[in-house]
């Protein structure tokens, strides 16, 4: 590999140049199925946690790590896994990930101790880290640029709706079978996908640059400790030494990673890519999009089940309308993105999601499903406008031989954004729920008051034993939960609006250029770029 990083000039990977249209779309179908199992696995066990707790006697902390162990390992290994796929072959990385995922998913069918279950989920997360970036990098290597936005849009739509599919499948399985059926389904589906993946072609970086193992260790550790701090924040509090210590350590390791990458001849990730407006817009857009998506899902699923009284499968069906505009807009990105431009698509999309979040604040404890559904559809339109353009912006800013790393950046920002969204929404929900409810429970004994204050689910389990006043206390708990939910929705809407303003100022428009005032400010601070402006400097200088 040369010492320069240049704009990609190849229209398609040489190893995939002979693929027919049918073969390319078969690859797209397999890649979408592969990534859907990763996304479904992120959310599938949420509805099964009560059953797991009863059968395994797992504590609340252990139940949390059954979910978060998967996400944490997935997030910290994405960038190294993407680089390994670029170096040694993307289909090989994908098959390795599927094999690890299947074996790890089979373990809970044999062992059911909480510690063993957490370990199995962590190993499954390691497998998922090899699956996720390889699916997208194979697509960008196989499709010519004239069709790439369409393929990426379909992939992004599947990723965006994969959580709903996971909820739906899980709800159906738990309606008839025990929680182990979820893992059995993962084993069967993963094995089938392994066979299908063997039928697709592979690609790799033909220049065979060595993997930057130091960079891989630094960024993996940075993401791991930062996400660990974020995950622990709702239960320990944001001021707990472990929480801010982990987050500060993550930032410090990320800074060390940046310094190392600027001095490496063959870096894992060219961090100067974040200076490109399209790449930065994509990374920021994806991060905040998933911040809101997962934060919203966290509070909304509890509202649907605990306030509206829906079962897990009814909840999944209730969320299905979210997938319709999302899939349509993602699959047609290639039609409107060239006409509107990245700036307009992402700016409008983020603002539309904010409007949907604010409309959700009109819900009450006795609201009907239509009252819940129409703000959901507004949000879905905004998500659909953002999802594919942000992913395309990241992938299009990186050379073809580094598509695995670009895909890993796209996936890592999703995971970090999702972890932050759940942590922030969960913290606001818990704090406001307790603050609203505590003054109204002064007459209850401590052994009754504490579980009611811990969560709405605990409150609804306790109140039937309180006799005539139980119904009134349950109503107070639901009202406090609704007020806390509204606070979380307001914070997420404000955060998303700030992100939209950043995109509106920084992102390139339809002509590929930033706003004139931004270009002038950047020109004053940096020398005019020459035709080698996107090349590496061994001395580690900027663009």
From TrEMBL:
Domain Major facilitator superfamily (MFS) profile per the UniProt entry, residue ranges: 27-511
TM stretches of this protein: 25-45, 65-85, 92-111, 117-139, 151-176, 182-201, 213-230, 242-262, 283-304, 316-337, 344-363, 375-395, 416-434, 488-507
Statement: the UniProt record of this protein carries the keyword Cell division: no
Keyword ATP-binding: no
GO MF, any single term: transmembrane transporter activity
Membrane topology per record: Multi-pass membrane protein
Protein location: Cell membrane
Keywords: Membrane, Transmembrane, Transmembrane helix
Superkingdom to which the source organism belongs: Bacteria
Main location (coarse class): membrane
GO cellular component terms given for this protein: plasma membrane
Record protein name field: MFS transporter
Organism: Mycobacterium syngnathidarum
């Amino acid at each position: 590999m040369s010492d320069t990083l240049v704009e990609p000039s190849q229209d398609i990977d040489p190893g995939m140049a002979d693929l027919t249209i049918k073969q390319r779309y078969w690859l797209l179908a397999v890649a979408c199925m592969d990534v859907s199992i990763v996304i479904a696995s992120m959310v599938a066990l949420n509805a099964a946690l009560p059953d797991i707790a009863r059968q395994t006697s797992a504590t609340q902390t252990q139940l949390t790590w059954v979910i978060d162990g998967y996400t944490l390992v997935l997030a910290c290994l994405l960038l190294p896994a993407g680089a390994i796929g670029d170096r040694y072959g993307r289909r090989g990385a994908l098959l390795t990930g599927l094999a690890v995922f299947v074996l790890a998913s089979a373990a809970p069918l044999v062992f059911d101790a909480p510690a063993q279950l957490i370990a199995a989920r962590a190993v499954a997360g390691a497998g998922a880290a090899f699956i996720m970036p390889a699916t997208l990098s194979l697509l960008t290597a196989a499709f010519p640029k004239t069709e790439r936005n369409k393929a990426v849009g379909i992939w992004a739509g599947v990723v965006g709706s994969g959580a709903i599919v996971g909820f739906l499948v899980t709800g159906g399985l738990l309606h008839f079978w025990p929680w182990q059926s979820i893992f059995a389904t993962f084993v069967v589906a993963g094995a089938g996908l392994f066979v299908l993946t063997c039928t697709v072609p592979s690609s790799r970086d033909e220049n065979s640059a060595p993997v930057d193992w130091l960079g891989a260790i630094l960024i993996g550790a940075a993401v791991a400790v930062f996400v660990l701090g974020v995950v622990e924040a709702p239960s320990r509090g944001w001021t707990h030494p472990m929480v801010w210590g982990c987050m500060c350590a993550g930032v410090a390791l990320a800074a060390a990673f940046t310094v190392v990458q600027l001095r490496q001849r063959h870096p894992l990730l060219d961090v100067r890519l974040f200076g490109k407006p399209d790449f930065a817009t994509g990374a920021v857009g994806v991060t905040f999009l998933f911040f809101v998506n997962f934060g919203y899902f966290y509070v909304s699923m509890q509202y649907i089940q605990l306030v509206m009284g829906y079962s897990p499968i009814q909840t999944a069906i209730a969320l299905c309308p979210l997938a319709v505009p999302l899939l349509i807009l993602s699959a047609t990105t290639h039609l409107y993105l060239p006409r509107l431009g990245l700036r307009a698509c992402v700016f409008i999309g983020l603002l539309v999601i904010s409007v949907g979040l604010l409309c959700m604040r009109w819900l009450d404890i006795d609201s009907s499903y239509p009252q819940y559904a129409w703000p959901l559809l507004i949000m879905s339109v905004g998500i659909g406008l953002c999802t594919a353009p942000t992913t395309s912006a990241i992938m299009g800013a990186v050379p073809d031989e580094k598509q695995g790393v670009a895909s890993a950046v796209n996936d890592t920002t999703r995971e970090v954004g999702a972890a932050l969204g759940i942590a922030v929404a969960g913290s606001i929900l818990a704090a406001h729920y307790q603050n609203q409810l505590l003054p109204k429970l002064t007459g209850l004994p401590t052994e009754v008051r504490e579980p009611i204050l811990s969560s709405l689910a605990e409150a609804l389990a306790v109140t039937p034993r309180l006799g005539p006043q139980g119904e009134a206390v349950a109503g107070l708990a639901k009202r406090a939960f609704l007020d806390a939910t509204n606070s979380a929705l307001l914070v997420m809407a404000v955060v998303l609006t700030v992100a939209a303003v950043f995109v509106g100022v920084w992102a390139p428009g339809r002509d590929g250029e930033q706003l004139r005032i931004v270009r002038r400010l950047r020109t004053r601070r940096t020398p005019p770029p020459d035709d080698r402006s996107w090349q590496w400097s061994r001395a580690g200088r900027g663009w």
